[in-house]
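re: the backbone from monday

yeah here it is again, tokenized this time
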């Protein structure tokens, strides 16, 4: 018989303490105590108790037994952990107690009978301290029964217990089962049936004293009250069982076998506790006891294994341990806080010794620091001299008394020092008086080991980035392929749809034309005659197509009576295909008559013959006889059409229309392909100019840096910060300083052959896409030339790696063409398209004004909503000019005003929009590389992002562009302070406004980048507003046609054939200049000045070249009503005195502006100030020569043909116009005189100049490259 008894430790210490009065006793441990964490304090000691014996002759009748072949030499029973020689607890063989006698009924061999077993399993969690073996003395010396067969193993009790114990007091548990006398007698009977021999064979002492078995455990006593085990030698009713000298199991006044109840007839049992309480239990095939033990259906006492209870016990124990450790930790932190406060220290950490890969808590006494009045306290730090794992965390008010704030920081395993400062999230810092705070980390890497680790980590990181980049490129390429395929499919669908629509349209048109012709022919046939008395007749009377007939005409009957010649001009079927007959008439031979005739071949398939008589052949004749404008008609008698004719006619017309359509489509396609080729060629030329744009400072040979080859960099320090330095060092890397090889070793530059440049040679790796370099006076630094903190960058061609795309998000309130107010809208759209064309990702966040021009938005659809600022904000998505635009529509009505500006609360509206846009990025999970905001209207983005969102997107940088300094100076000034980089619209204008208070403190990050023009809008090759398309190849013909169309449009007289063509001078009408003027002058030039007119600091100058007033046109309107009124008065004066030479159009007229740009020979822009200026750029696009004042972007784009050759070459350009300095009439006259002289005296040279300016690229190609450089520079901030 086998019984398993499992001793379970209570689920928590609290439960043990709670039952001390009823069930448990706790004895203190009087040894020393050492605090050790829970996981390091627990060891597992296992004991197994097996009680074996013969039951008696009637045992088999009471209960069937299990068969087993246990042997001392066999493997260790399950749950028994044998000890090695090195362990403290030595295993000893215990002598038998009260010598057991064999039953007479015991079989003689193990084959016929096996010992019955009682197994009690429990596990005891012990401290690391060694346990002392204890041996109970023999009581009533055990003697072996002489009748016991030699083959029978002694009775065994294996005890395996697992009890979790705290180091310190040793707990003894006494579990007492209170039973009555009847139960005692039953227990005694059952114990006899179990067996009379108990052998503690597994190094145990079995002591049976007073009817109790003692199991002695060195560190705990487990007492079972009112119970006994089987029928061992009993002394005073108590049996003592000593196992391994480690635990005492006291079974008092009872028998363990009492626990083993027979299943038959037993349904319920109450286990009485010592205090009289009882718990009803259900029994079927298994019985569960109050101490957690179970008996199976065979009466075997089962103790649940440690594995089945481990999770529950461990959770409860861990919870208790955590609570204890939390309390200890809190007490220790309280003590540290008091100590530091008394010493006046504002900082401590817990634990005091920082170890790697652990969490620490940083405590900061705010009142002791410069942050004492700040509501927010943050910690910003890193590790290992700020080289590893940066962090920024907000501190919260701690539980400590006083002004202690705290946060938890994880110390990485690579750390040997923690560096940090405290700040308020803005600009107020506590950095330990400029020294920063630092705390050493013990037990981890040292500085040298970290340096080695960092090198390896950087290598791994770069390898990982390289793999990710390759994978990203693969995905991007796949995405592009899929998108390209999608576009191809869409184009094909669109082509099929268009073709189908074209077929339907042509078919309908053919049917309509056929019906119209049929009606006309029927009318003609009804009215047609074969002759008219005394005027004409035809012979023979019957004829058909391809027949030759004679048409006779009486010359004296009509207007040709005095003509020297007579001709017939004819066609057929109501002139269906135009003029097909032209024959000269001859006079008949009859005398006295004035009849003439001509032989004519009737056109094939003709139904009606049409003709007129004239005094000469086509294009020469001046006098006609057209039958009083009715023409002459005759029916072809043998060709009267049937129904099939009209069916065939309809098909003929349809085929003709289809052919014409295909020809038009082919022409459009060819034109588009040519335009695309010209754009690509222009872009390639611009890139080369970009590479040579600073040739006076730096350039390379070859100009195109090729991957896998050697490149030589030439540098002229004469105009840089290194001018005069004895040495210049070249420092280089690749891929925006991120290449896996890192920065190359600095090179001392050597003199080049030209004497002015220095040179250095670089091996360009195959995986490079960009070469980056700077110059310095020493190998280790000193004075640098880093291009104004932008660094020098040159693209690398032919590499194996492509540049990863940037993600740029524009936040703006103007965008052409959906909400264009000024130039800002053009810049947002055109710049975004140009950057996107360079394979970068661009998004635009825009208010959903109720005044948007949605005709230019494709695929507009509602996407989602989010809440912010006390209102719901709807997000719409659509495409504008191929750009992804997110429209924000707040339900508070801020953008439902019918306008963009002028609502009285614009600052509030746009401030709300800026914050809502950043919240949209945050909630949408966007982490752009660059957030680009424009002018005062979206300036709040700069500081709102830095104050509220930088922690969510730490890699994002803010770029701010000033388009107009006249509005919102406060907003612009604040945005300049917060932005990582700032720009304005030209280099010269950036210098001109450098003294502005909003700009001057931030010149280190302020750059000028020119605007460009949109080549799709301003393109003379694809301009529907000019008479003929032209390029630089036919610029003379194109401009001549445009000039004639402009004169016709204005109602000006055209020059006579003997005159040379007019000279047209145009000038911009805007708030800086005041007018757009076309001055048309005859060839005789006598300079004279009608007047100079200066209004409100704005130059207004009609130019006169007597002998009479020149033809002048003004186009545009002034936003200032006073200035607009001045122009109205001027227009009235000019109209009254010179109406046929002056036309002032004081409104916006886009078609006329295109015609003026194409028809003008010169463009005059005498602006007082001009940040960039698009007028001169657009004029050059159309081949007009600019005449400008040297200010702002005008100076940066127009290079005087007489004075600026060197300056133009420095920018990779040729001279392209005329400029002047003064803001007066003398300056204008000086430039205009030179321009007109060039036009008058050297027409071929002038035409070449027109061709040159058309071929220069003033689009967004170059500015986009400059902005990409700026974006990368911002990322380094």
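seq for it, each position gets an aa:
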């Amino acid at each position: 018989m086998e019984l398993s008894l499992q001793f379970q430790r209570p689920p928590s210490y609290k439960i043990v303490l709670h039952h001390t009065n009823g069930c448990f006793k706790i004895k203190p441990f009087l040894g020393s105590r050492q605090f050790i964490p829970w996981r390091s304090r627990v060891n597992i000691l296992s004991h197994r108790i097996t009680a074996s014996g013969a039951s008696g002759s009637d045992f088999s009748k009471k209960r069937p037994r299990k068969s087993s072949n246990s042997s001392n030499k066999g493997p260790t029973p399950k749950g028994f952990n044998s000890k090695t020689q090195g362990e403290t607890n030595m295993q000893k063989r215990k002598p038998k107690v009260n010598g057991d006698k064999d039953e007479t009924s015991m079989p003689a061999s193990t084959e016929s009978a096996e010992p019955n077993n009682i197994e009690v399993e429990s596990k005891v969690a012990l401290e690391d301290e060694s346990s002392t073996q204890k041996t109970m003395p023999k009581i009533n010396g055990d003697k072996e029964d002489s009748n016991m067969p030699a083959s029978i193993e002694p009775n065994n009790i294996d005890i395996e217990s697992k009890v979790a114990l705290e180091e310190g007091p040793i707990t003894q548990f006494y579990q007492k089962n209170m039973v009555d006398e009847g139960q005692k007698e039953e227990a005694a009977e059952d114990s006899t049936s179990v067996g009379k021999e108990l052998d503690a064979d597994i190094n145990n002492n079995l002591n049976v004293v007073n009817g109790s078995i003692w199991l002695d455990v060195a560190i705990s006593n487990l007492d079972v009250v009112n119970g006994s085990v089987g029928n061992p030698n009993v002394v005073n009713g108590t049996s003592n069982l000593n196992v391994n000298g480690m635990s005492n199991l006291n079974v008092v006044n009872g028998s363990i076998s009492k626990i083993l109840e027979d299943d038959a007839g037993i349904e319920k049992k109450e286990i009485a506790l010592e205090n009289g309480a009882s718990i009803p239990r259900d029994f079927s095939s298994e019985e569960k006891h109050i101490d957690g033990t179970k008996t199976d259906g065979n009466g075997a006492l089962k103790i649940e294994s440690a594995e089945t209870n481990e999770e529950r016990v461990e959770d409860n124990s861990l919870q208790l341990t955590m609570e204890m450790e939390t309390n200890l930790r809190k007490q220790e932190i309280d003590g540290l806080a008091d100590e530091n406060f008394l010493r006046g220290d504002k900082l401590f950490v817990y634990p005091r010794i920082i170890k790697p890969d652990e969490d620490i808590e940083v405590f900061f006494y705010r009142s002791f620091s410069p942050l004492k009045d700040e509501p927010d306290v943050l910690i910003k730090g890193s590790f290992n001299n700020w080289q590893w794992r940066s962090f920024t965390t907000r501190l919260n008010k701690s539980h400590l008394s006083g002004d202690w704030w705290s946060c938890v920081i994880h110390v990485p395993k690579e750390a040997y020092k923690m560096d940090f400062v405290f700040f308020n999230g803005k600009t107020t810092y506590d950095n330990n008086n400029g020294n920063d705070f630092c705390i050493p980390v013990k037990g981890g890497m040292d500085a040298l080991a970290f340096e080695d680790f960092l090198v390896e980590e950087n290598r791994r990181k770069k390898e990982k980035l390289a793999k990710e980049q390759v994978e990203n490129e693969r995905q991007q390429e796949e995405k592009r392929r899929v998108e390209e395929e999608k576009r191809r499919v869409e184009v094909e669908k669109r082509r099929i749809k268009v073709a189908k629509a074209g077929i339907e349209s042509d078919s309908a048109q053919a049917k309509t034309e056929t019906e119209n012709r049929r009606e006309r022919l029927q009318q003609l046939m009804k009215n047609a005659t074969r002759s008219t008395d005394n005027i004409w007749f035809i012979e023979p009377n019957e004829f058909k197509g391809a027949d030759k007939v004679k048409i006779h005409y009486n010359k004296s009957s009509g207007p040709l009576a005095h003509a020297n010649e007579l001709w017939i001009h004819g066609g057929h079927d109501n002139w269906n295909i135009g003029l097909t007959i032209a024959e000269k008439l001859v006079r008949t031979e009859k005398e006295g008559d004035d009849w003439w005739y001509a032989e004519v071949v009737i056109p094939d398939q003709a139904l009606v013959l049409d003709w007129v008589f004239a005094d000469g052949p086509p294009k020469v004749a001046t006098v006609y006889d057209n039958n009083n404008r009715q023409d002459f008609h005759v029916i072809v008698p043998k060709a009267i059409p049937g129904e099939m004719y009209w069916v065939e006619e309809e098909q003929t017309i349809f085929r003709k229309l289809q052919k014409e359509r295909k020809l038009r489509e082919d022409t459009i396609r060819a034109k588009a392909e040519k335009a695309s080729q010209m754009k690509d060629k222009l872009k390639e030329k611009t890139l080369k100019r970009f590479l040579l744009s600073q040739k006076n400072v730096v350039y390379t040979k070859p100009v195109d840096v090729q991957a896998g080859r050697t490149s030589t960099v030439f540098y002229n320090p004469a105009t840089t910060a290194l001018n005069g330095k004895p040495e210049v060092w070249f420092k280089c890397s690749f891929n925006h300083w991120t290449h896996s090889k890192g920065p190359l070793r600095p090179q001392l530059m050597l003199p080049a052959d030209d004497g002015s440049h220095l040179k250095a040679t670089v091996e360009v790796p195959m995986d490079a896409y960009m070469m980056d370099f700077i110059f310095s006076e020493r190998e280790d630094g000193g004075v640098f030339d880093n291009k104004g903190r932008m660094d020098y960058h040159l693209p690398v061609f032919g590499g194996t790696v492509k540049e990863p795309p940037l993600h740029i998000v524009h936040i703006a309130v103007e965008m052409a063409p959906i909400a264009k107010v000024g130039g800002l809208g053009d810049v947002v759209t055109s710049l975004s398209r140009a950057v996107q064309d360079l394979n970068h990702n661009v998004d635009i966040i825009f208010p959903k004004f109720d005044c948007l021009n949605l005709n230019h938005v494709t695929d507009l659809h509602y996407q989602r909503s989010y809440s912010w600022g006390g209102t719901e904000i709807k997000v719409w998505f659509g495409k504008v000019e191929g750009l992804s635009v997110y429209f924000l529509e707040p339900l508070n009505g801020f953008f439902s005003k019918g306008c963009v500006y002028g609502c009285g609360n614009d600052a509030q509206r746009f401030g709300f929009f800026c914050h809502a846009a950043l919240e949209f990025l945050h909630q949408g999970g966007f982490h752009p590389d660059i957030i680009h905001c424009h002018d005062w209207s979206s300036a709040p983005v700069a500081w709102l992002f830095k104050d509220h969102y930088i922690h969510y997107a730490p890699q994002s940088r803010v770029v701010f562009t000033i388009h107009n300094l006249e509005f919102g100076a406060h907003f612009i000034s604040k945005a300049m302070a917060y932005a990582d980089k700032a720009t304005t619209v030209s280099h010269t204008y950036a210098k001109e406004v450098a003294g502005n208070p909003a700009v001057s403190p931030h010149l280190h990050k302020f750059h000028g980048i020119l605007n460009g023009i949109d080549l799709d809008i301003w393109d003379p090759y694809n301009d529907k507003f000019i008479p003929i398309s032209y390029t630089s190849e036919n610029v003379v013909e194109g401009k001549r046609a445009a000039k004639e169309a402009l004169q016709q449009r204005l109602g000006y007289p055209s020059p006579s054939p003997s005159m040379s063509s007019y000279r047209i001078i145009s000038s911009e009408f805007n708030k800086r200049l005041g007018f757009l003027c076309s001055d048309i002058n005859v060839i005789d030039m006598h300079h004279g000045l009608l007047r100079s007119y200066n209004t409100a600091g704005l130059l207004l100058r009609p130019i006169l070249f007597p002998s009479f007033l020149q033809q002048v046109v003004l186009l545009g309107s002034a936003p200032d009503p006073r200035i607009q009124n001045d122009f109205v008065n001027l227009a009235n004066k000019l109209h009254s005195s010179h109406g046929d030479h002056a036309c002032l159009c004081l409104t916006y007229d886009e078609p006329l502006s295109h015609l003026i740009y194409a028809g003008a020979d010169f463009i005059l822009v005498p602006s007082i100030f001009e940040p960039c200026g698009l007028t001169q750029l657009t004029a050059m696009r159309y081949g007009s020569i600019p005449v400008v004042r040297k200010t702002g972007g005008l100076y940066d784009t127009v290079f005087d043909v007489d004075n600026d050759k060197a300056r133009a070459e420095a920018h990779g350009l040729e001279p392209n116009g005329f400029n002047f300095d003064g803001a007066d009439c003398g300056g204008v006259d000086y430039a205009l005189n030179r321009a007109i002289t060039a036009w008058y005296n050297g027409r071929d040279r002038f035409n070449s100049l027109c061709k040159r300016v058309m071929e220069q690229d003033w689009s967004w190609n170059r500015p986009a490259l400059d902005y990409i450089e700026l974006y990368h520079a911002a990322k380094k901030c």
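The first strand starts at residue 2 and ends at 7. The first helix runs from residue 13 to 18.
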